[in-house]
# Entry
Amino acid sequence: MSAYTAQDITVLDQMDHIRRRPSMYIGSTDADGLHHLMREIVDNAVDEVMNGHASRIEVTLLADGRTVEVSDNGRGIPVDEHKEYKKSALEIIFTIPNSGAKFDRRNYATSGGLHGVGASVVNVLSESLDAVVRRDGYEWSQSYKRGRPRGGVTRGKATKAHGTTVRFTPDTEIFGDTGFEAETIRAHLVTCTFLNKGLLIVFNDALAKTSEDIRHAGGVADFVSHLIKEAGATPTIDRQFTLERGDDPRVDLSLCWTDAPRERLRTFVNGIPTKQGGTHEQGIKDGIVKALRNYIETHDATLPRGLKPTAEDIREGIVAVGSVFIGEPQFQGQTKDRLNNPEVKGQVEGVVRPALERWLQDNSSTADAILARVVMAARAREASREATAQVRRKSPVQRKLNLPGKLADCSSSDPARSELFIVEGDSAGGSAKQGRDRMTQAILPLRGKVLNSEQANLNKVLGNSELTDIVNALGCGIGKDLDPSRLRYNRIILLMDADSDGHHIATLLLTFFFRYLRPLVERGHVFLAQPPLFRIDAGKKTWWAADERERDRIIRKLPPRAKPDISRFKGLGEMMPKTLYETTLDPAKRRLLRVEIPEGAALETEQVVADLLGKDPQTRFREITRWMSIVEEVDA
# Structure
């Protein structure tokens, strides 16, 4: 055994740490992490808009597909010398993590960027970044390579303009050959204009040679109309409830009841999407429910005898957008998916409840239509009481005794820290159990291919032992009885062999989650692991490749005289536990794909799942034929 001494301890400066552990700062190094860089720079420009210093942003995707430029007409990043560091403030912001003007509220009353690492992280993870500032009568610029300045800040031509332009190209050493997707960029820009009335964003796509002006004068009300149309839903009331309050916290909220079978609530804090909700979202939900209940009590609204609508009945069919602006948000992690400020829940509820209650009083016919919608939801729930009771009997509670016997649970009882790996086969499950971090990682092995839930009703699904084991392990119920707050694991990771059988099993599981556990997908809890298919050894170095394309790309980059030794894994079960951990389980090194329903493609997703996995073989054949050329291209 080698000696373990102080010489084995490595101390990294933060810039080196960012490059070695980028997922800690941007969530992943896949396409989502790549676009996170774009969002960081765009959101800095939006912060100028939110605080009244800018009105126009221009975003350009350059022709190489890998470079993005963001320009605003704000104040411009300061360029004068910082007294302590003896450097320009521009250089400090882009090269020193934990620096910025947003730690207090003197320059930014509200902001999405509060951690002081966004711009510097983008810089460190980019092979090149150029910043140009227009202020103080001149144009100032500085260039960087992988976070390090190529020179000092230089003063250029005189100008009366003001603002900041940032152009960056993400590093292929971190992100591989992944390029930006114009539609993903556009979707984020559209959201920004919904949340900031009057903001004009010009999006230039040099690849497609198009330019578009994006602006939404109606704000969140326009956003709700967009979501209703996107979902193919029909409003059950003749108007939206819209609230705009400018105090601290500032709350912009618009909602409408529809005929959709579930609620759809999109929430934001300081313009940042909170996919996992948080205290502001709970405040909105509580405010809606209490307003309706108060209205029923004070107006002696008649309900069918014995019918007691639940909070879920009241919110069923709601499509809503809630945007909250606060001075000191406490986000969960750098990716800011959840708000944790405990005081915000009561503050937001205190804004929403009385405003919605007054609106109901002033619009009695609309209130009656809403109550009719609530009664319909409650009756539907009562009509399915027997099935719901069966679900509840099969849904676990937070007790170890009710968990599946083959589940190797983790030691932590904190869902935020816990992960569940659903693994293909007992052999792979054994390797995963031995290699995992027992404190935070749970393993649930499955046997063979699971039931196709697209062709099964709820009773048949609950009669399937493999799917029931998943429901029991998750602890949050299923279908209408699903309560995401009871979820035992923050991440649910599907870990299958990197072959066609593994892809088929993953598809069946994704169908099950999409049909019966969809809120978990919508809240970003479901992931696909990316285990390696190949190991490439050359000299003293080892590379891992997820597929043939990545294998070939690695081989092409090797020195001409290198003789790589290439091995292919037949399955996860033949991996040594240590190898499985290092390549697939270790949060610092693994690659995960977050499962999402694409923005604006909810109806298309519904149709594709129904066509590919439904009972009609003709639609399945038609869908496979439609995508055949792309599949062949991928396989090549």
